[in-house]
Amino acid sequence: MLKKENKTEVIVVGAGPAGVACAITLARAGREVVLIERGLFAGSKNVFGGAIYTQATKEIFPNFETEAPLERRNIEHNYLILGEKDSTNISYRKDDNSSYSVIRGKFDRWAAEEAKKAGVYLVEETVVRDLIKEKGKVVGVRTELEEFYADIVVLADGVNSLLAKQIGLRSEIETKDVALSVKEVLTLDKDIINQRFRVNDEEGSIVEIFGGPMLGMLGLGFMYTNKDSVTIGLGVTLNELAENNYRPFELLEQLKQHPSIAPLIKDAVLKEYSAHLIPEGGYKKVPKLCDDGVLVVGDAAMLVNNLHWEGTNLAMISGKLAAETVIIALEKEDYSKKTLSKYEKKLQNSFVLKDMKTYRELFDVMHSRKKAFLSYYLTKINSFFEMFTSSDGTPKKDNYWKFIKSIFTDRKIYELFKDVWAVIRLLWSILL
Ligand SMILES: Cc1cc2nc3c(=O)[nH]c(=O)nc-3n(C[C@H](O)[C@H](O)[C@H](O)COP(=O)(O)OP(=O)(O)OC[C@H]3O[C@@H](n4cnc5c(N)ncnc54)[C@H](O)[C@@H]3O)c2cc1C
Fold it and tell me: What topology is assigned to 7-50+102-170+287-358 in CATH?
């Protein structure tokens, strides 16, 4: 019989946005919660683009806009389609506060400190190796040094979630359902950032990048402006990297050398290089979210909206909803799967699973038509603008017809039907 000395009400594994949101919600409700993080400090191991989103962050930290270590308020979103030497940029600019760029090492650390102030007991530099089960129920965790027991354990241990796999909540991720992302933080003078990205001191710009070195693959690139640095990176699904024998850092080098990107980062100095996985499976790959005595939140539950680069907000809200469910379970002293499954219902009713459901067909469609949508048509957008902006004496009407005819000669009729059908299927699933 195991001795239950280190017993608390709730253990949360992982102090990323999901874990901290869950722990702080529990502590604010007066519950006893231990948050265990393997990093030297919360955020020390965390990698993202990236932007945090105001609505979700405010739900957890109402005063974060004045108190948290933020970099810049994003006022511009650019969607950049790279050809070999050219590019098309769609830019949307609005002076609002819907998202902020942050450095995770600073932001996560601040968030964990807030959790401590709220009463969370934070244990850092400690890896949870195993979950302890008794009579089919999770009753605690085993770290390198000791065992901790709890009424409920929340798994917020990120995309790999070895712990969720251990107890059969998740299966091994298929390589097509996960992207390997590499990124660099490049130091650049604040005034130069302002000038190159057409922003003022506190303002930021986001660049989402299609094509270029990721042409024909399920991959995206990104740039974010920080106070005095720029983040640049890309992510491509693991199966495509393996199939094409690409090394991600080589793709990133190519991206940095593209004529539309290079001037933005000229003379910038490498400060940090990192790599991380991103869940890509979408709604269909969300695993079982709870079992007796245990819940899964954030990336561990594959809750990422890739098309919109949203992950931290889904993580925070899933952490909060899990905490609300745990509070009910603690009040009832019922830690069964049946009671904890209220978490799933809450998620279904929130934007988290609603948004993921909206894009449920996106990955299947993109995987099956990637050569069409992520290569041919992307290239065609650039060649349209090449044609549209040229003034070589050819009558414009001739140019238009040449462009239209090229589509029918490049692609067979049945391929065009398949492309149109894929778009209809996608729009149908998104809108209905
Ligand atoms: C390159 C990149 C760019 C991204 N850009 C954006 C963006 O711009 N905006 C956005 O919203 N999202 C973005 N995301 C997604 C976002 O980072 C994640 O969705 C989010 O961090 C998930 O939060 P989480 O708390 O679930 O997991 P994580 O942030 O991964 O946190 C998990 C924590 O658990 C700890 N841990 C893991 N295992 C153990 C263990 N066994 N014991 C103890 N501790 C453990 C880890 O150290 C870590 O601190 C990006 C992701 C990547 C990789």
Answer: FAD/NAD(P)-binding domain (3.50.50)
